[in-house]
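A protein record pairs a chain with a discrete description of its three-dimensional fold. The shape at a given residue is found from the number at the same position. Here is what such a record looks like in full:
>
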Amino acid sequence: MQTTSLWPHGWRLSPLALPMLLPLCDPSAEAGGPATDPAAIDRAVAAFTGAAVGAPGGARTASDPRLQLASCAAPLAVSWHTPARTAVAVECPGTTGWRIFVAINPVAGGSAAAAAKAPPAVKRGDILTIMVRGRGFSVQQPGEALEGGAVGEWITVRTSRKAESLRARIERPGLAVIPAG
């Protein structure tokens, strides 16, 4: 049985193809521009919150040094992502735009203004309804709050004494919701 090769002259073209394929295997040979320094994101968050990384009111952890975001020509835009001020949105405006969210360390005790603005809706140990809500369905079960919080905040809950803890958002006093999908 005779087999025919799709390549003329067998594999003799492979030395010519190697220089064209090599950059695909070598990330350092990519033609992409410089990436945004993750330390610049940390500096922008620290300037916005007024607290250093790891400090109360500052970013929980430093940005991952492996983060590869497109270079940003404009200054980074920083804003609060949640009303409870538990996360900050950092974005690069422009054509190469991107957005990331940075978790913020809670301030112990909180400020008087924040406490007046968002009274606690759930206290630790409260019995509440835990609802998993999805598109076209909802399932609910009684549970216990393992920490307190105001409406809109995410807290830790569990459905029974032996159950694993879950994160749920307080929708109103006595109801915590876990969105599905």
